[in-house]
Amino acid sequence: MAVKRVFFFGGGKAEGNGAMKDVLGGKGAGLAEMTSLGVPVPPGFTIGTGACALYYGNRGKLPQDLKSEIATNLSKLERTIGRKLGDPKNPLLVSVRSGAKFSMPGMMDTVLNLGLNDKTVEGLAKKSRNPRFAYDSYCRFLMMFSDVVLDLPRGAFERIIAEKKRERGIASDVDLAAEDLMSVCGAFKALVKERTKKEFPQDARIQLELARDAVFRSWNNDRAKYYRKTNGIPDDTGTAVNVQAMVFGNMGDGCATTGAREQYGEYLVNAQGEDVVAGTRTPRPIRDMKKEFPKVFDQLMRITAKLEKHFRDVQDFEFTVENNTLYMLQTRNGKRTAAAAVKISVDMVKEKLITKEEALFRLEPRQIDQLLHPVIDPKAKLDVIAKGLPASPGAATGAAVFHADKAVEWATEGKDVILVRKETSPDDIHGMDVARGILTAKGGMTSHAAVVARQIGKTCVAGCDTIDVDETTNRFMAGGKVVREGDFISLNGTTGEVILGKAPLIAPAMTGAFAVFMSWADAVRRLKVRANADTQRDARVARNFGAEGIGLCRTEHMFFAEDRIPIMQEMILARTLEDREAALSKLLPMQRDDFKGLYREMKGYPVTIRLLDPPLHEFLPKREELMVEVTKLQLIHADRSIIEEKKRLLERVEELHEFNPMLGLRGCRLGIYYPEITRMQVRAIFEAACDVTRDGIRVHPEVMIPLVSMVGEMRVQKEIVVAVAEETMRRHKRKFPYTVGTMIELPRAAMTADEIATEAEFFSFGTNDLTQTAFGFSRDDSGKFIQHYMKENILEADVFATLDQGGVGQLIRLGLEKGRSTRPTLKVGICGEHAGDPKSVEFCHAIGLDYVSCSPYLVPIARLAAAQAVLREKKTGKAGKK
Ligand code: PEP
Ligand code: MG
Question: What average pLDDT does the structure give for the chain?
Answer without folding.
Answer: 89
